[in-house]
Design the sequence.
């Protein structure tokens, strides 16, 4: 009786081994093993585990979980991959005085309510009233001074080697003069 039991156990083990061998051969013949770097994104690969084969399309980014996620600027969530630089709609503006331009989705200083020519003319009049000659003048852009939008004008004065930045507000008012050494 004991020898019959041993014989049955041996037969079951041999049967299991043969069945396993046939199953392995069938799987090996029909399927190829995934290899990262072979140019094919297989089912066992994703953008996190094999970025060479599994590339996210368009403006999507690969999450840490290996899923491609498309950024949706304007969805109210500052997602990974978004920042105030390219999506202030969701992430806000962090530089003092900047506002979010919803057309470009970028933070910028608000435009002062005067033209570059009017800002330059106001600076010329300001120094002329003090009998100071300007050697170089250039409107460099917009900023904020005293919480209000201004044009910034770079000025070099006769006899002074240092640059001055002059903030010109609405109506041509000089709101600030900064000396740069």
Sequence:
């Amino acid at each position: 009786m004991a020898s019959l039991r041993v014989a049955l156990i041996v037969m079951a083990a041999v049967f299991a081994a043969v069945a396993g061998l046939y199953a392995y051969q069938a799987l090996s013949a029909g399927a190829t093993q995934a290899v990262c770097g072979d140019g094919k994104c297989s089912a066992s690969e994703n953008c996190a585990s094999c970025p060479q084969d599994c590339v996210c399309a368009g403006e999507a980014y690969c999450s840490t979980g290996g899923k491609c996620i498309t950024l949706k600027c304007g969805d109210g969530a500052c997602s990974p991959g978004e920042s105030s630089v390219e999506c202030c709609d969701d992430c806000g503006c962090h530089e003092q005085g900047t506002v979010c331009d919803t057309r470009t989705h970028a933070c910028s200083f608000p435009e002062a309510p005067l033209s570059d020519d009017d800002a330059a003319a106001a600076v010329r009049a300001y120094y002329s009233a003090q009998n100071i000659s300007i050697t170089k003048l250039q409107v460099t852009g917009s900023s904020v001074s005293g919480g209000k939008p201004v044009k910034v004008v770079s000025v070099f004065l006769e006899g002074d080697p240092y640059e001055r930045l002059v903030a010109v507000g609405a109506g041509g008012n000089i709101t600030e003069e900064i000396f740069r050494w």
